[in-house]
């Protein structure tokens, strides 16, 4: 077998066995599933709340502004605190809260404003998607190896989620679409659990990497290991995150 084929086979196998890869993929599809439905049926949902067609068009402007607020705030907070998964978890919670409101509050003229606010709360999916891309790029090593595999999986999951998402909104469930929002709530639950498990997994991986570096270089002081004073000898090598002993996750 040619050397390049052996390398591709090895790195592909490692990527497909990497729990981080599959966790990020699961987050991508669980985030895209509600997005597909809410994006395709947003005007219909708002109309069922009691707003006119013209009002739904005007409210879509505010919806776009809120999505941008979610996106820019996620980018700022991620850079400010150097956290991604925790922010993903936090930005999923408004989606859960808004969905619970849809399930519990009946549609009427008195409740349409509250339902509208709940609908705006469910627009945090854009922030989660951006943060998930940051998690992928920051925790998957290898320029031409693992990264290519995870990118294909990630965007395939995104496409599948957006394609399947609208299918849960059925005509016979109008006006409240309870079955669709129950499905969304289940998906959000899976997403929150996956984010939590991935966070714990990456923290554990960092601990093991520090321990490995310390055992390999016992002359280093404990403080140097804790401070992660690395030489970055492999910064430009095409090594996966598991092959690179200096790779730390965040």
From TrEMBL:
**What's the protein called, per UniProt?**
Uncharacterized protein
What keyword terms does UniProt attach to this protein? Membrane, Transmembrane, Transmembrane helix, Transport
Localization recorded for this chain is: Membrane
Q: Which InterPro entries match?
A: MFS_trans_sf
Transmembrane annotation, as ranges: 21-45, 57-77, 89-109, 115-136, 148-169, 181-202
Naturally occurring in which organism (per UniProt): Psilocybe cubensis (Psychedelic mushroom)
Q: How does it sit in the membrane?
A: Multi-pass membrane protein
GO MF terms here are: cysteine transmembrane transporter activity
The record lists the lineage as:
Eukaryota, Fungi, Dikarya, Basidiomycota, Agaricomycotina
Gene Ontology terms, cellular component aspect? membrane
Q: Which domain of life is it from?
A: Eukaryota
Q: Which Gene3D superfamilies match?
A: MFS general substrate transporter like domains
